[in-house]
Write a structure and sequence with these properties.
The structure holds two protein chains of two kinds.
Chain A (H helix, E strand, L loop, with lengths): L3 E2 L10 H7 L15 H21 L7 E4 L2 H15 L5 E5 L4 H12 L3 E5 L9 H7 L4 E5 L13 H10 L3 E5 L18 E5 L10 E5 L25 H39 L3 E3 L10 E6 L4 H10 L2 E2 L1 E2 L12 H5 L4 H4 L2 E5 L6 H21 L3 E2 L4 E2 L3 H4 L6
Parallel strand pairs in A: 1-11, 3-4, 3-5, 5-6, 6-7
Antiparallel strand pairs in A: 2-8, 7-8, 9-10, 10-13, 12-13, 14-15
Helix pairs in contact in A: 1-7, 2-7, 7-11, 8-11
Chain B lengths: L5 H8 L12 E7 L4 E9 L6 E9 L2 H14 L4 H5 L3 H7 L8 H19 L12 E3 L4 E2 H11 L4 H8 L9 H14 L25 H21 L2 E9 L2 E8 L7 H16 L4 E4 L5 H5 L8
Parallel strand pairs in B: 7-8
Antiparallel strand pairs in B: 1-2, 2-3, 4-5, 6-7
Helix pairs in contact in B: 1-2, 2-5, 4-5, 6-7, 6-8, 9-10
Classes of the chains: A alpha/beta, B alpha+beta.
């Protein structure tokens, strides 16, 4: 088992205070919050408290704008499907080429059903062109869905500004804020964002709990119909213990926000500066001036990501890769392709994502092993000249496969 | 993380024969940096005996690509070129105690590099049948291009047809939606509409004989099934004939356009699938060229029982 966990954008450790808050809702407080007897009382109150804890973290105006769901994916699907059902005459959706598969696979499917999908491209740093965005907005667009922060590079999109522009054009705006919530401050009541997705397990709450923020007055069609839970906007008996856990995690996130942005960021910065200084032919991807404080995505040229991860894992370090070979497809990460990262680097990207549970000594441990890991794999690579310790000149030409 | 065998991990963490062989006289290069896998295999071949005296690899790729390359060099060292060419990608995977289905292409890359290296030594031109399609069926490592070609070539209409002819979709069924999309696309190009409830083509009802068949009856039945494939193959300028049945193996000759066709192994797989359905027993279909010479002599002992 790895000792150093640097894959917090995949999932986080559940905070022990969160676990403590949850336990009574498996044991003593097991009532169904919808019941009218005394077993339900405390449970219903706990859900109400959790709702206000989420409300405070994201700065929502009303606690009734918080709908508990099962995960970020459900929140994303609910938002987009609600928007198109509520506005059947609008047949266009605007999103980006670098969204999470929760959005991309959904819109791919909607495209097959006849919707026009505008997938906005990004530049080499992963940034959007707002002028082009403005031109896409029209009364044909049912919804704009743009992630707040990218899960691979941490790049932050200007969603507050984009929501203003959508609002001015009379278009609904949703943001998948799964990676951003709890890491950067937000005050939704001062924005024009209509819907926002949260996933509990990205902020030290358990897996299997999410939130859809739904601004009061936004036209809405539920994904799950049935009982009257969540004011009829998401049927199904509440996942009480997880809701309580998510509430507690939001409270803790407010407490630790400054730590995330100062100490956690300092660890991240030390790691990437150390790697870039020690290892030739590697670079950081994404918008370096506008990133989540906990994320770095580094491309190691001429080697492949899964192989790096296996050697890191052997050294007791857990990270993640956008490499194709971790997913079984042939294409590298769609995010790297969208940023036009050359193939010599796109297959060798490693994401290190931190949390408040990491330490500087862990960073030093990674810095100790990383250069030899990269050197080991480059020694095996046909694109690396081991004698002169440099890439072969013009790798595509030097290597002449029998078929191209 | 993939569930790699200890042997895969061992070959990855302690690769054998890494680097280029000094004085190599055979080089095989396959893959490319864009597809994320590339292998350069260098061999030192004894020019008198054609024995591979040394082999080295340089691989850009994931853990199993590096392990497959490493184990390949171990397998082929000491073999003659002819014997080395008999090494299949399954042999490479088996030597590693198996690979995850999604990673079988790593073993294919090893075999292709070997073929390319031998061709290079012999001054021949080597053409692979590797396609760069998206992997559709992860259980059997079958890509979109192969499925499309099979749908075209065999006029397939349903997901069941595709599974019967390519094995794609015969495992976890997660790719059925993608297979339907391919069917929709190809049928549209053919001016037809995809109908998910259409009957599978030329459905041969499984006839489970109550009484055991005599040798002659059994061979006749096998021939009957193989004959049913002929019109379709002849339409494409090819043909097939049954040469021999030994135990549970049927040896066939692929002729005309089918001989040397890139898709002939898929056609054979389709015949095998159909035979198994009809005969309700395990039957292997193998090109007659692979029939062991010894079996021809000892045909009586070879188990017609």
């Amino acid at each position: 088992m790895p000792d150093i966990y640097l894959d917090n954008n995949a999932t986080t450790k559940v905070d022990s205070a969160v676990v403590d808050a949850m336990i009574p809702f498996f044991t003593e407080q097991f009532g169904n919050p919808s019941s009218i007897h005394r077993f339900a009382d405390g449970v219903a109150k706990a859900i109400k408290k959790a709702r206000s804890q989420v409300q405070e973290l994201i700065g929502a105006e009303h606690d009734s704008e918080i709908i508990f769901t099962s995960c970020g994916t459900e929140s994303d699907s609910t938002a987009i499907l609600s928007a198109i059902k509520a506005q059947p005459n609008r047949k266009e959706i605007i999103t980006t080429a670098v969204e999470h598969p929760a959005i991309l696979n959904l819109v791919d499917n909607l495209e097959k059903e006849g919707y026009t999908i505008h997938r906005m491209p990004v530049d080499k740093c992963g940034r959007l062109n707002l002028e082009a965005y403005k031109n896409l907005l029209s009364d044909q667009v049912a919804i704009v869905s743009v992630m707040w922060a990218n899960n691979e590079t941490g790049t932050i999109f200007p969603v507050v500004e984009m929501a203003e522009m959508a609002n001015a054009a009379g278009v609904m705006f949703h943001t998948d804020a799964v990676q951003a919530v709890g890491k950067i401050p937000m005050m939704l009541q001062d924005t024009k964002i209509d819907m926002l997705s949260i996933s509990g397990h990205k902020l030290h709450a358990p897996k299997g709990i999410g939130v859809l923020y739904l601004r009061r007055g936004t036209r809405y069609r539920p994904l799950l119909r049935g009982g009257h839970q969540e004011r009829g906007r998401r049927a199904g008996t509440e996942n009480t213990a997880s809701i309580v856990g998510l509430g507690k995690a939001c409270e803790l996130a407010i407490e630790h926000m400054e730590y995330e942005n100062v100490q956690v960021k300092a660890m991240r910065d030390r790691l990437e500066q150390g790697i870039v200084a020690a290892i030739p032919h590697c670079f950081i991807t994404g918008d370096l001036n506008n990133r989540l404080p906990n994320t770095t995505d580094i491309a190691f040229e001429y080697i492949e990501g899964e192989a790096i991860l296996m050697l890191l894992n052997k050294a007791g370090i857990a990270a993640s890769s956008g490499s194709a070979c971790t997913s079984g497809s042939l294409e590298p990460s769609h995010v790297m392709r969208a940023m036009d990262i050359p193939y010599t680097a796109a297959h060798g990207t490693i994401r290190f994502s931190f949390s408040r549970y990491n330490s500087m000594s862990e960073v030093d441990e990674v810095l100790k092993v990383m250069p030899s890991i990269v050197a080991t794999l480059r020694k095996l690579s046909p694109y690396w000249d081991s004698i002169n310790n440099e890439p072969v000149a013009d790798p595509e030409q030097a290597f002449q496969p029998t078929y191209a | 993380m993939w569930d790699y065998s200890d042997k895969v991990k061992d070959h990855f963490f302690n690769p054998k024969n890494a680097g280029a062989v000094e004085g190599a006289n055979a080089i095989g290069e396959v893959g490319s940096i864009s597809c994320g896998d590339a292998l350069r295999l260098t061999l030192k071949v004894n020019e008198d005996s054609e024995i591979i005296e040394d082999a080295g690899f340089q691989t850009f790729g994931c853990g199993s690509a590096i392990a497959s390359s490493s184990v390949l060099t171990e397998i082929i060292k000491g073999l003659t070129l002819d014997d080395a060419l008999k090494v299949t990608n399954q042999d490479i995977a088996a030597e590693l105690d198996g690979l995850p289905p999604e990673k079988m292409h790593c073993s294919v890359m090893g075999r292709e590099a070997l073929q390319a290296a031998v061709a290079n030594y012999r001054g021949e031109e080597w053409k692979d049948d590797h396609e760069e399609g998206a992997l559709v069926c992860k259980c059997f490592a079958i890509d979109a291009v192969m499925i499309e070609e099979m749908v075209w070539a065999n006029k397939l209409r349903t997901v069941e047809d595709v599974t019967n002819f390519t094995k794609a979709g015969g495992g976890c069924a997660a790719c059925h939606e993608d297979i339907e999309a391919i069917l929709e696309k190809v049928l549209k190009e053919r001016g037809e509409t995809f109908d998910p409830s259409a009957a599978p083509i030329e459905k041969v009802e499984a006839k489970v004989e109550k009484k055991p068949l005599t040798n002659l009856q059994r061979i006749k039945k096998i021939e009957e099934v193989i004959m049913s494939f002929r019109p379709q193959l002849m339409a494409d300028g090819g043909d097939v004939e049954l040469v021999e049945v030994i135990g549970n193996t049927a040896y066939v000759n692929m002729t005309g356009a089918c001989s040397g066709c890139q898709m002939s192994s898929m056609t054979i797989a389709g015949i095998q699938q159909r035979l198994m359905e009809v005969m309700a027993e395990f039957i292997k279909v193998v090109p007659a060229s692979q029939m062991p010479a010894a079996e021809l002599v000892n045909i009586k002992e070879a188990g017609h029982a």
